């Protein structure tokens, strides 16, 4: 179980090694992704709050990266944070995500990226529910929900 101190250590010192790497040219990403996905994943944009696919969606399943289809979050870790974006308490594994300090817009935050394809997902904050206190605030455009395996 990750805690805020773990996130800070990863962002400051070194992220976990990904199970694999997916690297493509900007043109290849542009051809594969929708315009909204490309803006979020490759250009680090943020989609509008409350007007996104998974903000109010709580169906069971797994959330995978829209870029490389790596599994990132399980629906059991999703919760209603009233933030306007899908919020999760934990990733599926310590090596699923990459953490970077982000001081854009004169804010001090921790950016979350897919550890396999380096796609921008959103940010993580230390104001989530117990026991970890983490709130992964993720753009819907960076995710695809997969139904549970039968």
UniProtKB/TrEMBL annotation:
Signal sequence bounds: none
Protein name: peptide-methionine (R)-S-oxide reductase
InterPro entries documented for this protein: Met_Sox_Rdtase_MsrB, Met_Sox_Rdtase_MsrB_dom, Mss4-like_sf
EC number: 1.8.4.12
Catalytic activity reported: L-methionyl-[protein] + [thioredoxin]-disulfide + H2O = L-methionyl-(R)-S-oxide-[protein] + [thioredoxin]-dithiol
GO BP terms, alphabetized: protein repair; response to oxidative stress
SUPFAM superfamilies reported in the protein's UniProt record: Mss4-like
Keywords linked to the UniProt accession: Oxidoreductase
Domain MsrB: 26-148
PANTHER family: METHIONINE SULFOXIDE REDUCTASE, METHIONINE-R-SULFOXIDE REDUCTASE B1
NCBIfam families (alphabetical): peptide-methionine (R)-S-oxide reductase MsrB
